[in-house]
Amino acid sequence: MPIVLIRPSTIAGSKINRARSFHSTVNYLYCPKCKELRVKAWYERRNRCSRCRGDAKAIRIPNSWLTYVTYVFYVIVPALVAVYLITHIGLYVWLSLGGVVLMMVVSFADVSRGAAYAKNRIKITDGDLHEFRKRGWR
Ligand SMILES: [Zn+2]
């Protein structure tokens, strides 16, 4: 009697992982060798340093209220444009433009916060700090 192995737990697990990676908006990659910190691109699967191609440490930035404010603008701005296209009331164009500007300001603040968070995490988690000091790096 052939036994067909179906593992619903693995399937469910991969789904959860995918949902999780969708939720974590920003990941930073840090290379201890090059001391390079950069934002991980969405298409990158492996945590690799862009300079030395070595293993880089991934630092996940948790969402802040700024992230959610950006999400809200992502919804509001097209909605305002849609309202303008229907009603042709000029006010909504200006509101949507204002929304775009605000969204840019908020997302910039969020990116700065993420970078500060990542730098803090490096300070805490970096076990090679001793090594850096020996080589005269800061
Ligand atoms: Zn590197």
Which structural traits does this protein have?
single chain, elongated, 138 residues, 3-stranded antiparallel sheet, binds zinc ion, mainly alpha, 59% helix, 3 strands
User: Beta-sheet strand percentage?
Assistant: 5-15%
Q: Oligomerization state of this entry?
A: single chain
The domain tally reads 1
Overall mean pLDDT: 80
Fraction in helix = 55-70%
What's the arrangement of secondary structure elements?
Elements: H1 8-23, E1 26-31, E2 36-39, E3 57-61, H2 65-87, H3 90-125, H4 129-134
Antiparallel strand pairs: 1-2, 1-3
Helix pairs in contact: 2-3
Bound molecules: zinc ion.
Verbal overview:
This protein has 138 residues and is mainly α. It has one domain. The radius of gyration is 22 Å and the shape is elongated. Zinc ion binds next to loops. The site of zinc ion (ZN) has 8 residues, from loops.
Brief digest:
By secondary structure, the protein is mainly alpha-helical. It contains 4 helices and 3 strands, in the order H-E-E-E-H-H-H. The chain has a 3-stranded antiparallel β-sheet, covered by helices on one side.
